[in-house]
Specification:
Blueprint: H1 3-7, H2 16-25, E1 27-30, H3 36-53, E2 63-65, E3 76-80, H4 82-85, H5 87-95, H6 98-106, E4 110-120, E5 128-131, E6 145-150, E7 162-163, H7 189-193, E8 201-202, E9 210-214, E10 219-221, E11 230-239, E12 258-260, H8 287-291
Antiparallel strand pairs: 1-9, 2-3, 3-4, 4-11, 4-12, 5-10, 6-9, 6-11, 7-8, 7-10
Length: 300
C-alpha cells in the first residue's frame, strides 16, 4: 500500500496527525504505549535469557557477546530471535497493542519479519554507527518498519536511538559498502559528514514507550554511559504486500506470519531501487560485530 492509501483508512490507535508525521519524518515515539503488565512479563523473560547467556562463552546464532563477557559478569549485545527463545515474546507481538499501532502505519494487513533483543550494557555498551535497515533485508517496497520497546526508562546516558528526520526520503539511497566494495553495514564518512547533529532527534522515553522508524531512516545510537543496562526489544514488521528479495538473515519459524489482517494476493513494488546486501550464507551474528570489524560476518 502507498502512504496515501494507508492514511485513507481510519486509524485504530494513533492520531491521524501522528500517522502523517511518521510518513513525513520517518519515525515516531509513542510514550507509555504498552501496559505495565506486559513490561513486567517482558522484563522477567529478558532476565531468563540473560541467565542463559551466562553459560555461553563465545557468540553463536542466538547470543552475541561483547568482548569481556564472563559468566559472573555477562555483557550481551544481542539475543537473536527472542520469539523462539521464550514464548512471551511471540505472545507480546501478537496480542499487545503493537499490531494495531503498526497497522495504522503500514495498512490493515501486517506481517512479521524478525525480532531481536539488543543490549547496551552499563558503563560502555557499544555504540551503533549511522546506518539504515532495508539493505540488510531488501523488500519489494519500503513499508517495513522497526518497533522498539523500552523495557526500562531510557534517557540520554542510556544510549537511546537517534534518528535524522526526513532521511528516509533521501535519494539516491546511500551505499553501505566502502570504496573497495566491502560491506560495512554503516554509512560512509562522506554521508556521515552530511548529517547536521543539531537536527538529530534522540528518542528517550519512559518504560513502555515505543520507538518506530522506517526501514530507510538513517539512525544510530551512542554508547551507554550509565550505571544501568539498556535492553531494547525490536520487531521488524511489514505490510503483507512487501515481499522479501533475499533470505531473512535472522530467520524464525514465524517468518512471514500474519499478525493482523490477511495475506496479500499481490506484491506491491516501489519504483525506487534498493541496495542489495552481500551473500549472508557464510554466517553472521549482528550489526555490532560487523561495525566493530570483528572476524565473523554478520547481518542486521
Amino acid at each position: 500500500m502507498t502512504p496515501e492509501q494507508v492514511l485513507a483508512i481510519p486509524p485504530r490507535v494513533l492520531k491521524q496527525e501522528s500517522r502523517e508525521f511518521y510518513f513525513r519524518e520517518g519515525y515516531l515515539l509513542v510514550e507509555r504505549a504498552i501496559p505495565e503488565e506486559w513490561i513486567r512479563r517482558l522484563r522477567a523473560a529478558t532476565e531468563e535469557l540473560v541467565e542463559r547467556g551466562r553459560q555461553v562463552s563465545t557468540s553463536d546464532k542466538i547470543f552475541d557477546l561483547e568482548p569481556g563477557h564472563r559468566p559472573d559478569s555477562p555483557r550481551l549485545r544481542r539475543v537473536s530471535n527472542p520469539v523462539e527463545q521464550h514464548p512471551v515474546f511471540w505472545e507480546y507481538i501478537t496480542k499487545s497493542p503493537i499490531g494495531d499501532i503498526v497497522a495504522d502505519l503500514v495498512g490493515p494487513d501486517v506481517k512479521f519479519h524478525h525480532s531481536k533483543l539488543n543490549f547496551k550494557w552499563r558503563q560502555g555498551g557499544e555504540e551503533v554507527k549511522w546506518h539504515y535497515d532495508i539493505s540488510f533485508w531488501p523488500h519489494t517496497n519500503y513499508s517495513p518498519l522497526t518497533v522498539g520497546t523500552y523495557l526500562y526508562d531510557c534517557g540520554m546516558d542510556n544510549g537511546p536511538l537517534g534518528v535524522l528526520p526526513g532521511s528516509h526520503s533521501i535519494e539516491p539511497m546511500a551505499s553501505q559498502y566502502d570504496a573497495s566494495g566491502k560491506w560495512t553495514g554503516c554509512l560512509g564518512d562522506a554521508d556521515v559528514a552530511r548529517i547536521d547533529e543539531s537536527k538529530v532527534v534522540y528518542l528517550t522515553g519512559p518504560a513502555g514507550s515505543l520507538t518506530i522508524h522506517n526501514c530507510r531512516m538513517w539512525h544510530s545510537s551512542p554508547r551507554n554511559l550509565s550505571d544501568l543496562g539498556r535492553p531494547l526489544l525490536l520487531y521488524t514488521l511489514t505490510s503483507a504486500d512487501a515481499i522479501p528479495y533475499t533470505v531473512n538473515p535472522i530467520r524464525s519459524k514465524y517468518d512471514q506470519s500474519i499478525i493482523r489482517g490477511k495475506p496479500a494476493r499481490w506484491a506491491h513494488h516501489d519504483p525506487r531501487p534498493c541496495l542489495m546486501p552481500p551473500d549472508w550464507s557464510g554466517g553472521y551474528t549482528s550489526i555490532f560485530a560487523l561495525q566493530q570489524q570483528e572476524e565473523t560476518a554478520s547481518a542486521k
